[in-house]
Amino acid sequence: MSETYTASITAPVNIATLKYWGKRDTSLNLPTNSSISVTLDQSDLKTTTSAMTCSSFTKDRLWLNGEEDLQLSESKRLTQVLANLRLKRKEKEAKDASLTKISSWFIHIVSINNFPTAAGLASSAAGFAALVACVAKLLQLDDDMTELSKIARQGSGSACRSLFGGFVAWEMGEKSDGSDSKAVEVAPLEHWPQMKACVLVACADKKDVSSTSGMQLTVKTSDLFQKRITEVVPERFEQMKKSIMDRDFELFAELTMKDSNSFHATCLDSYPPIFYMNDTSRKVVRLVHTINAFYGRTIVAYTFDAGPNAVLYYLEENEEKLMSFIYAMFKDLSGWESKYNGEQLSKFLKNFEEQKLLDTLSLDMDIVKGCSRVILTRVGPGPLDTDDVLINQEGLPKFTK
Amino acid sequence: MSETYTASITAPVNIATLKYWGKRDTSLNLPTNSSISVTLDQSDLKTTTSAMTCSSFTKDRLWLNGEEDLQLSESKRLTQVLANLRLKRKEKEAKDASLTKISSWFIHIVSINNFPTAAGLASSAAGFAALVACVAKLLQLDDDMTELSKIARQGSGSACRSLFGGFVAWEMGEKSDGSDSKAVEVAPLEHWPQMKACVLVACADKKDVSSTSGMQLTVKTSDLFQKRITEVVPERFEQMKKSIMDRDFELFAELTMKDSNSFHATCLDSYPPIFYMNDTSRKVVRLVHTINAFYGRTIVAYTFDAGPNAVLYYLEENEEKLMSFIYAMFKDLSGWESKYNGEQLSKFLKNFEEQKLLDTLSLDMDIVKGCSRVILTRVGPGPLDTDDVLINQEGLPKFTK
């Protein structure tokens, strides 16, 4: 058999707190505004990707979750991403004649998510980040993550932010070739490791429109959108970075909630209007404001991507306060036992019963019916090396469906 | 018994097609933007009001739907409205000494809606329009409706538009005393009598926030709101008036839908966000766009006020096209038999079955579950004299609960 190279990596999901919505260039995935996200812990949500290259391979191939994805394999965005990575390898080979010219070989890629793709949890972001980081490792590139983020961005815009851990900004840039549209670290995981997240996965409704076509409809038709991208977001971008640097949770939370609402407002202002939040999402919004009002300060923030799932951000120090509501209301969902023992869960319930006695609440206990599971996680690191090799020596997936 | 004067009148509901949302002066009900509405036919939706004044009455009293409303009787807005009307009478009395000085007498007012107040159908607009028109008649004022609209506006902003039939604009004005914030006729009923309306009354959810406090929250907190009132609405106001003058339904419909969406977008952009549309409202939005796409042109428009009810506007010539969908999907609701005979209803169903065969549709037939009734109506006249006297000779309601 011919010589082969193999690399494996894991990459995280990120959930934006300042939303990416709108492209100024659809081919290069150049956004109309900068965005910010929190990278989530890979022990809860991750994509694992292995890549192999071999002189005898006859084409680039890609397997997602055990099945070959011919459509993505032949897509413009994957082709573009691989071409960009190979170009970097080629430049390296040109400088160092001792290097094997693997830039001309085909690549097999095997990728698996440890969470349901259908859950609407930014799987394409983690997927393209893993792919770019993995192939960069395979091709032994020396580029830093910011440089690679410009390539990942072309696969899936928000993928660029999954190349960093902690708190990440995607600077929109202004150049037409996209060379300044890149991800940078706002603060590493270690800066604010107390940041936790609780994902309330909503029962899958039919999605209104894909985010790719949805965002361009907004760009084209929303009268309010220009205000968002030219005034609202630029100011919020600076404020949110500062709130992270200052570890000012109340400000961070308020900006996060406002930006989620602003993004969904421009969706609603599109024509025809786009709806991603449903009645359950609305109930979660109300619940969060009720909880914050109950405690007299902002201990939790909601944010919604292009779907009805709620992501709640909160600090570890307020976990009991928050979970005394959330566990009591969502206890029938799966996802609790892996994080809390029986004693903790009983404590949450007991607190809730005591709080209800205060009679300040009018909670909609039916809210749980619109949700399918809870995912408890926290801020986490960027792509990591892994010993978990998904590809066998023939360059085929070890596990298939 | 002392001398009495009595007057009775009916007034219509109006549903805005360019929304009023936001006050620049909460005491005088001066709006942040101009608005436009269609007045609905009183044979379907109306408020009937009788008023009596008598030198022996000891205070102003008000009965709504058979019950005395002490709160409203003593409210600032009612006091203000009656004081303004009495002032006009007083000026008249000062000029003509032969007039009885009824401006100093107390007034009893009895008012009944022929539709459920709780249905969220702008009952306060019809109510205050009827009250102002009725008391103006009682006091034999000579002012025209535009002049009276400045008084009705102080009772309930949108009430000013219910003083005219047909197509009505509320010009926001710019003076701080409100003397130029008034309703004017854009076009009378006779200009475009083919305009019909179908109200899909949604199952009453708990209202998020009252429109009075909701709109001020938007003014105070929405970043996108300024764009709406300074740029979007002023342009749309002129376009919509033109579309009415030109009887250009497609343009009128598109502007109506966009403005409803824009208004709800600024609600969502408020903090905390305000939601008036629910999942059923969203389904109606989708259905309307599906119907228009099916016919390849805009034959129907939706609009939503501060609640989940949908009001659909359409032209009589497209009634069969529209009802072939709407009746088929909402046939289990009450409200059909009073407007259509069995033959017509069968025709609608038959058309629908044939259309479904085309298989271009993915309709959510469950949509009906979120609705409680349908109200079929059309554009109608402004306040009308009536022989229906609701007050007895003692100045008390003829009918009580």
From TrEMBL, chains A, B:
<keyword id="KW-0752">Steroid biosynthesis</keyword>
<dbReference type="Pfam" id="PF18376">
    <property type="entry name" value="MDD_C"/>
</dbReference>
<dbReference type="InterPro" id="IPR005935">
    <property type="entry name" value="Mev_decarb"/>
</dbReference>
<dbReference type="GO" id="GO:0004163">
    <property type="term" value="F:diphosphomevalonate decarboxylase activity"/>
</dbReference>
<keyword id="KW-1207">Sterol metabolism</keyword>
<keyword id="KW-0547">Nucleotide-binding</keyword>
<dbReference type="InterPro" id="IPR014721">
    <property type="entry name" value="Ribsml_uS5_D2-typ_fold_subgr"/>
</dbReference>
<feature type="domain" description="Mvd1 C-terminal">
    <location>
        <begin position="198"/>
        <end position="383"/>
    </location>
</feature>
<keyword id="KW-0067">ATP-binding</keyword>
<dbReference type="InterPro" id="IPR041431">
    <property type="entry name" value="Mvd1_C"/>
</dbReference>
<keyword id="KW-0443">Lipid metabolism</keyword>
<dbReference type="GO" id="GO:0019287">
    <property type="term" value="P:isopentenyl diphosphate biosynthetic process, mevalonate pathway"/>
</dbReference>
<dbReference type="GO" id="GO:0005524">
    <property type="term" value="F:ATP binding"/>
</dbReference>
<keyword id="KW-0753">Steroid metabolism</keyword>
<keyword id="KW-0756">Sterol biosynthesis</keyword>
<feature type="domain" description="Diphosphomevalonate decarboxylase-like N-terminal">
    <location>
        <begin position="11"/>
        <end position="182"/>
    </location>
</feature>
<keyword id="KW-0444">Lipid biosynthesis</keyword>
<keyword id="KW-0456">Lyase</keyword>
<dbReference type="Pfam" id="PF22700">
    <property type="entry name" value="MVD-like_N"/>
</dbReference>
<dbReference type="InterPro" id="IPR053859">
    <property type="entry name" value="MVD-like_N"/>
</dbReference>
<dbReference type="InterPro" id="IPR029765">
    <property type="entry name" value="Mev_diP_decarb"/>
</dbReference>
<comment type="similarity">
    <text>Belongs to the diphosphomevalonate decarboxylase family.</text>
</comment>
<dbReference type="InterPro" id="IPR036554">
    <property type="entry name" value="GHMP_kinase_C_sf"/>
</dbReference>
<dbReference type="GO" id="GO:0005829">
    <property type="term" value="C:cytosol"/>
</dbReference>
<comment type="pathway">
    <text>Isoprenoid biosynthesis; isopentenyl diphosphate biosynthesis via mevalonate pathway; isopentenyl diphosphate from (R)-mevalonate: step 3/3.</text>
</comment>
<protein>
    <recommendedName>
        <fullName>Diphosphomevalonate decarboxylase</fullName>
        <ecNumber>4.1.1.33</ecNumber>
    </recommendedName>
</protein>
<dbReference type="GO" id="GO:0016126">
    <property type="term" value="P:sterol biosynthetic process"/>
</dbReference>
<dbReference type="InterPro" id="IPR020568">
    <property type="entry name" value="Ribosomal_Su5_D2-typ_SF"/>
</dbReference>
